[in-house]
Every structure is written in structure tokens, then in C-alpha cells.
Amino acid sequence: MLESIQNVLNVPEFRKRAVFTLIMFIIFRLGVHIPVPGVDAAAIEGLFNSGNLFGLLDLFSGGALSKFSVLAMSITPYINASIIMQLLTAVVPTFEQWSKDNQDGRDKIQKVTRYGTVLLGFIQAFAMSYALKVNNALIDNSWTTVLMVAVILTAGTCFLMWLGDQITAGGIGNGISLIIFAGIVARFPNGVNTLYQYVQAGTINIFQAALFALIALFMIVIVVEVTQGQRRVNVQYAKRVVGRKMYGGHSTHIPLKVNQAGVIPIIFASSVLMFPITIAQFIQNDTIQWLAQVFGWGTLANTVAYAVLIIFFTYFYTAISLNIPQMTENMQKYGGFIPGIRPGEPTARYIDRIMTRITLAGAFFLAFVAILPNFIGWITGIQGVYFGGTAVLIVVGVAIDTMKQAESLVLNKQYQGFVK
């Protein structure tokens, strides 16, 4: 690993991109500390205690939500717009055709996603502003202030979207993913400091702190293993002659990932469970208030529903994102086949059966890492320090993808030198 890092650092272009990415991170962190004008931050900071569902959203924003800064909504509207666009691609013929086109089609999808981000961002920002008005958290409860706060929050999300594009173009890795990564990692020193203060004050002992560290290490290890885990389906390509050249005759494999859906099912499940809580802030109805209380974060009903929804959405999103019929059709078109399996429909059924089995393991894994924070406090006796598998899942996934892109950059430079 150290040799790989040294090889990467020896590339001048990588160092330039790394410095650019670091500057973008600094700008992002500065924006987290710019408060929204007209908001009483002290009145709302207590609503976002670490360990609840809003604490999870605050973790993704790097603490911007609890401070209610101009970047309070983080990049969440863009993520939601991207997910909705991906789902629409599977059912809307026009979007499906765009996804199959070249760069022009992808640019059209990206443009629609950006417009969707602005629309969803303003709706979410207006809802948050109205909730502040209802809870008397605005200095001036006029509708002008509500609209001003909504516009500022939407502009903050648009700025982060632009910042992510700049990182993707001039930095290293996917800019949107790295912004989420930076927000999560930025909270890590604060958690370590809180843990240290607990030990110094005698609130917890060394054994509890060590147990917490072991659980954190265990979570990181299993997340890395499952993220990298895949089932390789062997594929053989028949020899064929085109003109005077012979093609095929080689073997390869299809890498079917255990966690094909990534962190998307957790986001879906969180959004569904937040619905009754959000509605309860606006409608004073006994039934809705009862639902919000029963499905409050950390309750038994919430934990069970959270796990079930994650398992359901894992299968749902995997079926949407992985087009097995198209995969087998492309394989057959180029003369590929799975040894012992007939091409066409039998191959599709075979791959679907394998995917169903490994997705079950991935679904239970996601449910486990999502609900584990509910039990960490009970196991270790440590309260007020959030360490969730969801955050680890995102950090590990982004770190692995970024490292792969960095290694690809190094290999590209080495091959260019060899050609010259």
C-alpha cells in the first residue's frame, strides 16, 4: 500500500489535482460555518442531537445542518434527483434512449438532473423554513424571511453541486461523493475528542472506550470485505473470423457484486421513515402524532421497519440498476457463453438466480450496518458519539473508488511514457 501511495505521489499531475481537491475541501468547510441570516441557530441546534435520524443527516452535511448554515441541506437534493432520474430511466423510453446514447445523451440526463436538483432543493428548503416558522426559530416570522431562507438554502445546494463538478473535472475522484466523504470525515475528530473527554471526566472507563474502538474496527473490516466482495461468473468467448483476423477464443468473468445497490437502499428507507415525522411537524393530528412517536428513531418499531425496508429496497434497486437481459444479450452478440449454460434465456435465469442469492447477503449486511448504531450505545454504555455503519460504508466506498482512479491515473502516465 505504501509503495502504491509513493508511486501516486510521484506523478506531478496527481499532486496538482490533489492540491486542487484539498482547496475545494477547504472552501466547503468554510461554507459550513456561514450561518443563514434570520435564523436563531441556538433555538434549533438541540433538535439535531447525534444518534437520531436527523443526526445522521447532519453527519452527511458535516455539521452544517445543526449549525443551520448556508450549506445545511448539503448535496442531498442532488442525490435524490439522481436516484429519481435513474428510476425514470428504467420506465421512460426517452430517458432510456438517452442513457444508451453517447456523451450527448448523458449530458442531457445530467442537465435534467440539475434542474431536478433545484426543484427538489427549493421544495425541501421551503419545508425546512416553514418548520422553523412554526417552531418560532426565525428571528422574523414573516413570509418574506421564510422565502429568503428557502432561496439561500437552495443556493447553497447549487453551490455544492458546482463545487462537486469542479472536483470531478480538476481534482481526483467523483466530486459529489467526495463532498459527502469530507462531511463525514470532518466529524471524526470531534467524536474522538468527545470520547477522550468522557474518559477524562470518568463518565466512561478505558474498557468501554476500547470496546467502542473494537466495534468500530470490526465495522470497518466487514464493510471493506463486503464492498469488495463479488461472485465471478466465468464467461467463454468462441473463436470467430472477421476478414483475415481471428477474434475471441478467450475467457473472462462477470463480477457480480454482493452489495450491488451500495448505500442507496439506506437512503430510501430513511426517507420513508422520515415521512411521518416530517408530516407531524405540520399537521396536529392524533393519528399522525402517534405514528411519529411509534416510529421515532431508536424505537423497536422503527428498527424493525428500517431493516425490512432496507432489504426490500436492496432487491428493488438491484433489479433497476442491473439489466440482466441486456447483459446476456450483449454477451450472446459477441459470442460469449457461460460454460454448461445455454445462451439466451437460460443464461439470464442463471445469472438472475445467482444475483438473487448474493443480494440476500448484501441486503442483510446493509440492514445490519444501518441498525447497529442503535445498539452501540447499549453495548458500550457510550452516548453522544455517533458511529454508524452507513457513514463507514460511504467513506470506505468513496476511498476505494478514489484510490482506483488515482492508480488509473498513474498507469495512464506510465503507458504514455512507454509509447513516447
Automatic annotation (TrEMBL):
Keywords: Cell membrane, Membrane, Protein transport, Translocation, Transmembrane, Transmembrane helix, Transport. GO terms for cellular component: plasma membrane. Gene3D superfamilies: SecY subunit domain. The chain crosses the membrane at residues 20-48, 68-92, 112-131, 143-162, 169-186, 206-224, 263-283, 303-324, 358-379, 385-403. InterPro entries: SecY (IPR026593), SecY/SEC61-alpha (IPR002208), SecY_CS (IPR030659), SecY_dom_sf (IPR023201). It is found in: Cell membrane; Membrane. One of its GO terms (biological process) is intracellular protein transmembrane transport. Its main location: membrane. It is a multi-pass membrane protein. Component of the Sec protein translocase complex. Heterotrimer consisting of SecY, SecE and SecG subunits. The heterotrimers can form oligomers, although 1 heterotrimer is thought to be able to translocate proteins. Interacts with the ribosome. Interacts with SecDF, and other proteins may be involved. Interacts with SecA. Belongs to the SecY/SEC61-alpha family. PANTHER family: SECY/SEC61-ALPHA FAMILY MEMBER (PTHR10906). The central subunit of the protein translocation channel SecYEG. Consists of two halves formed by TMs 1-5 and 6-10. These two domains form a lateral gate at the front which open onto the bilayer between TMs 2 and 7, and are clamped together by SecE at the back. The channel is closed by both a pore ring composed of hydrophobic SecY resides and a short helix (helix 2A) on the extracellular side of the membrane which forms a plug. The plug probably moves laterally to allow the channel to open. The ring and the pore may move independently. This is Protein translocase subunit SecY.
